[in-house]
Amino acid sequence: MKWRFDSQLLCESDPIFVRRLDECVRSFWTGDHENWESFLRKLPGYYPLDVWQSLSRLNLESGLLGIAGASVARQIFPEPFPNSPEHPLDYEWRFTQESIRDILDFLTREIGGSKQPSVACLGCPSIVVAGDKIRPSWSWSLLDRRADLLKSQINSANLMACDLTKPIPTHPLMDIAVVDPPWYNHLTKHFMVKAQSIVKPGGLILLSFPLEGTRSSASKELAELLNWCKEGGLELNPTNKIKLHYKTPFFESTSLKAAGFSARIPAWRSAEVLIFRNRVSDNCRLTYNDDTSRLFTAEWNEFIIQGIKFSVKNSGDKKDGKQGGSGRAFLSPVWREAILPSVSTNFLGRARANLVTSGNRFFECSDPYLLAEMLLAGQNRDGGINISTNAGGERNARELNSVLHSEINDRATYLKEMYD
After folding, report:
1. pLDDT at 6 over 60
2. Which of 43, 70, 144, 204 is most exposed by smallest CB count within 10 Å?
3. Using alpha carbons only, how large is the chain's radius of gyration in Å?
4. Run of H or E including 409
5. CA–CA gap between residue 329 and residue 349 (Å, rounded)
6. How far is CA 287 from the centre of its chain?
7. Dist. CA 142–CA 22, nearest whole Å
8. Angle at CA of residue 248, ends 247 and 250, nearest 5°
9. Can you give the pLDDT at residue 140?
10. Buried b (16+ CB within 10 A) or exposed e, 112-144
């Protein structure tokens, strides 16, 4: 969905118009609309973004949307990285539309209607993509490894491509940070150090954290993290709580099926949002110096063919003194099947993989250089879905095409199950 910015509400020039719109939306909203378009058609020509802002405003005042509004909210916010599917190596679970709305509504209530805050998002691009459009008068910033991929979807937000487990460039101080790290404390601490460093004293930091049922150690990890945050100058607000929900990504859906679970679960994964006030001072701030905790411990080359992402690890082993010299690229699953039945980074054999697909297939390839050349040739081809035999030989191309076609079929099934 492409947004324009010519609405009267964004100019805030006509309070009579705003009041009339709110009255109209309130009178037409019955709570049983199954889709956004049908509701818009009942209204006398109001611009969609104006209507959505009215619904958000009325929901804050009186809870107008309630549970019934979820089906409408789900259709509002654009999808981040539309041409780059989720991938297991990116630690990427995207918020549901309802969770995006809940965070934006919470921030609106927290700061008050007249203020125009600055918000930094660390590892949660969907908030920036939505906020940049729904709250365009706010200052938005995204710190994410793949931030540059969002340029075509962003109007004014600042995009900083960086690995948040490493030192980051100088960043202006912000009022709020929303942090969605991988759910491992050693990585969360890296994210939180960066968040505190760019949030003004007294500002807010929102952190997603897994619920206690996520794994057996979750409660213990939470207690340890909260103690670390307290000692580092973060004051927890125990009363305000938000529950987040994540869309089930393609790689997790295939993983569940590989484990024998076939039920349709579009958004089962949940988290709690911990809300902190930044009480940083010269003598009290977060510190974490574990240089071994890295999101990306090796360089990976990414190739996207027909909506499927292949990541190939640089091995440093050049066959015959040149790239691709061996002429053979054998693909061997690191487990007994190509699709791993788990998304855990600790799953047996996962570390051996040097080819990983967006459908959670993990392979060990004997010649990753040749494999990368074949995928690059396939990515640059015009039309067709086959990888040419000219790039790496008939046998290798046949193996790789088999993987590609399986991924395409699995993703088509996934999309049908998630959105039909």
Report:
1. no
2. 70
3. 23
4. helix 394-419
5. 19
6. 26
7. 32
8. 125
9. 96
10. eeeeebbbbbbbbbbbbbbbbbbbbebbbbbbb
- As beta bridge partners, residue 242 has 273
Q: How confident is the model at residue 298 (pLDDT cuts 50, 70, 90)?
A: low
**What predicted TM-score, i.e. pTM, was given to this entire model?**
0.77
- Structure confidence at residue 34 (pLDDT): 46
Is the CB of residue 371 less than 8 Å from the CB of residue 400?
A: yes
pLDDT at position 8 over 70? no
Report which of 154, 201, 151 is spatially closest to residue 176, judged by C-alpha positions: 201
The angle, 0 to 180 degrees and rounded to 10, between the axes of the packed helices 185-198 and 218-231 is 30
List, in order of start, the domains of the chain with CATH numbers. 8-73 (no CATH), 88-278 (3.40.50.150), 300-419 (no CATH)
Closest CA to 118 of 141, 95, 99: 141
How many Cβ atoms sit within 10 Å of the Cβ of residue 412? 11
Model pLDDT, residue 293: 56
Q: Indicate the burial class of 282 (C-beta count within 10 angstroms; 0-12, 13-18, 19 or more).
A: exposed
| Listed residue (50, 66, 87, 13) closest to 361, CA to CA | 87
List, as one string, the DSSP characters of 250-298.
HHHHHHHHHTT-----TT-EEEEEEEEEE--BTTB------TT--S-SS
Tell me which of 279 and 297 has the higher pLDDT. 279
Structure confidence at residue 295 (pLDDT) = 55
- Which of 50, 148, 63, 146 is CA-nearest to residue 105? 63
Residue type, 390: N
- Please tell me the total number of residues recorded for the chain in this structure: 420
Integer Cα distance of 26 and 344 in angstroms: 46
Local structure of residue 112 (DSSP, 8 states): -
- Give the separation between CA 369 and CA 314, rounded to whole angstroms: 8
Reported as a single tens digit per residue, the pLDDT across 207-258 is 999 998 888 889 999 999 999 999 999 999 988 778 899 988 999 999 999 9
pLDDT mean over 366-375: 88
Judged on CB neighbours under 10 Å (0-12, 13-18, 19+), 22 is middle
- Confidence check: pLDDT of 196 > 50: yes
